[in-house]
């Protein structure tokens, strides 16, 4: 995982669609994207960049390629979360949660659910 790099916003958007679809042709990815739809060549270029970066692989079907994730969503989520905690919250998950509580982005029900999760991990 140390070799993985963070993706650009556009690359992440494409990866989310491929993760959701379980693999896709460029036309399938475009169909899932919101309006205004990007050009086919734009998506095709991003997909090839993702393949070069080691996030995707493809299987050829004549002139078409079906792209599949090499890097799973949970693996990438771990990388991004660790980087966020390291860079903005002094390597403290507690500081991250405190931030969301202070900014009122967690309501009491969500805090209660977190407490239950913490307690279940101690058992």
- Overall SS class: mainly alpha
Number of strands: 2
How would you name the oligomeric state of the polypeptide chains in this document? single chain
Count of domains: 2
Please identify, by name, the CATH architecture of the largest domain: Orthogonal Bundle
CATH class of the largest domain: Mainly Alpha
Query: What would you call the shape?
Result: elongated
CATH topology of the largest domain: Arc Repressor Mutant, subunit A
Keywords: DNA-binding, Transcription, Transcription regulation
Protein name: BlaI/MecI/CopY family transcriptional regulator
Pfam families: Penicillinase_R
Organism: Rhinopithecimicrobium faecis
Write a structural description.
With 123 residues, this protein is mainly α. The protein folds into 2 domains: 9-69, Arc Repressor Mutant, subunit A (Orthogonal Bundle), CATH 1.10.10.10; 73-122, no CATH class. The protein has helices at residues 9-21, 26-32, 40-52, 73-88, 93-102, 108-122, and strands spanning 56-61, 64-69. Strands 1-2 form a two-stranded antiparallel ribbon. Helix 1 crosses helix 3. The longest helix is centred in the middle third of the chain and has 16 residues, at 73-88. 12% of the residues are buried. The mean pLDDT is 92.
Record the SSE blueprint.
Layout (H helix, E strand, L loop, with lengths): L8 H13 L4 H7 L7 H13 L3 E6 L2 E6 L3 H16 L4 H10 L5 H15 L1
Antiparallel strand pairs: 1-2
Helix pairs in contact: 1-3, 2-3
Family: Belongs to the BlaI transcriptional regulatory family.
Pfam family, one: Penicillinase_R
Keywords: DNA-binding, Transcription, Transcription regulation
């Amino acid at each position: 995982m140390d070799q993985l790099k963070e993706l650009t916003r556009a690359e992440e958007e494409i990866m989310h669609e491929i993760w959701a679809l379980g693999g896709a042709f460029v036309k399938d990815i475009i169909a899932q994207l919101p309006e205004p739809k990007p050009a086919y060549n734009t998506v095709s270029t991003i997909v090839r960049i993702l393949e070069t970066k080691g996030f995707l692989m493809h299987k050829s079907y004549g002139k078409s390629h079906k792209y599949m994730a090499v890097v799973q969503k949970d693996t990438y989520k771990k990388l991004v979360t660790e980087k966020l905690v390291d860079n903005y919250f002094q390597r403290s998950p507690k500081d991250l949660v405190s931030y969301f509580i202070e900014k009122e982005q967690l309501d009491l029900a969500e805090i209660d659910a977190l407490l239950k999760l913490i307690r279940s991990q101690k058992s």
